[in-house]
Amino acid sequence: LRLEADLQQAIQEQELHLNFQPIISLTTNKIVSFEALVRWHHHERGWISPGEFIPLAEQTGLIIPLGEWVLIEVCRQMKLWEKELANYWPLSIAVNLSGLQLIQPNLVTFIEQICQYYCSNIIYLKLEVTESVLMKNAELAIETLTKLRNYGIEICIDDFGTGYSSLAYLHLLPIDTVKIDRSFINQMIENEKNLDIVETIISLAHRLDLNVVAEGVETELQRDILRSLNCEYGQGYFFSKPLPPKEIVNWIHNMN
Ligand code: G
Ligand code: G
Ligand code: MN
Ligand code: NA
């Protein structure tokens, strides 16, 4: 209960921060995008991981104001980077969307308004939703995501392979990109079945005209295998852990 009140306060009093994890093109080796990941610096307890407070935020409905803060902050950051990182443009930022956010009646309007206000309708935003979130209120989720896509926002299916939507539904979903869950990438080399799964997801995604991001790439060998399987993009500690905005700028300058 205490943590709930604290989280409410944290949203208002700027204890929340965003880290950004680079997403890399495996063909050009250049950065193409980031995933925004929220962090909470509690005034007494120090850093609290999203694994702990996102579920709390979902249970209490605080994910709505928290999610709005994240979306606005991402647009503000993009506006700054558009100048600061002009040499590396175009870049985009992917934001994780919770199930409760996805069924808010005003989500589409809210997103259109902030894109208009902060970015003059230029769309830098991508949205990530998990399979389970998509399947929970499938009809409404599909309707909302279709509107967002029509507005120009790319939709990624996150943690793919861990939920139950399965391959059978993939072609029915209004999505552009599949993010393969890091558990498959992690075990790809030790466990041949996981390599088969990764290969199958990639080739199916390509037949459906979807792009693929491999999550949790931690080694050069994993990167090389994914590249040989024609996986378009990679994300993971091999490239970079999630970084605060200032460090992102240094990281990009050093990388390129
Ligand atoms: O960065 P880390 O691995 O600690 O993130 C843990 C989990 O928190 C991930 O599953 C991630 O999707 C989720 N998460 C991080 N930031 C956000 C956010 O802004 N909104 C939502 N809904 N989930 C987030
Ligand atoms: O659930 P979602 O995919 O949104 O969350 C991404 C999470 O994965 C973040 O918490 C991030 O810190 C974590 N992550 C990113 N790259 C790696 C990696 O290479 N290895 C591991 N173990 N975790 C990673
Ligand atoms: Mn994600
Ligand atoms: Na993921």
TrEMBL record:
<feature type="domain" description="EAL">
    <location>
        <begin position="1"/>
        <end position="256"/>
    </location>
</feature>
<protein>
    <submittedName>
        <fullName>EAL domain-containing protein</fullName>
    </submittedName>
</protein>
